[in-house]
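Worked example

This section walks through a single chain of length 169. The input is the sequence exactly as stored; nothing has been trimmed or padded.
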Amino acid sequence: MRPPLTITYGISVEEIEQMTRTERDGRVRDRLRAIALVASGETVPEVSLRLEFAESALRKWVHRFNTEGPAGLRDRPRSGQPVKLSLELVEDFKERVRADAQTEDGVCALRGEKIRSILAKEYNAEYSLGGTYFLLHRLGFSSLVPRPYHPERDLKMQEEFKKTFSHRS
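Given that input, the structure is written out below as tokens.
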């Protein structure tokens, strides 16, 4: 049988409860609640049942709290795929997308496949089509845009067509 875990970090239950009330991150707030219960004398199995946490996770949080204090309850950085578009280039890319299609792009409106090729050519960032849409969404762009207009459209001729079209049918 394991010996009961206790809180050895120099902090009172009242201070932990005060931190719980002011904490904005819900995950950290839940962990602080659990630590407060352990600090007030409950055992790890009792707290894990009461708060419906895995006992192993609660033990890990108690150990991290004892060594690092409240900062030990925050999520650690997770591994993942490295960013393809560096942070320095993000603002430049956003301006490029907002500027819409350029004459050298050879299209009248930027769509996913064209943005993907711009990322590869101008920013040396290889994205899949889905990854391109995910990046655009993450940067605050919407895929809903009005239908593009041809640069050589004739508005006067279009209005004339609208007036006479109903008579033709």
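What to look for: Helices lie at 13-22, 26-39, 44-51, 55-68, 87-98, 112-123, 129-138, 155-168.
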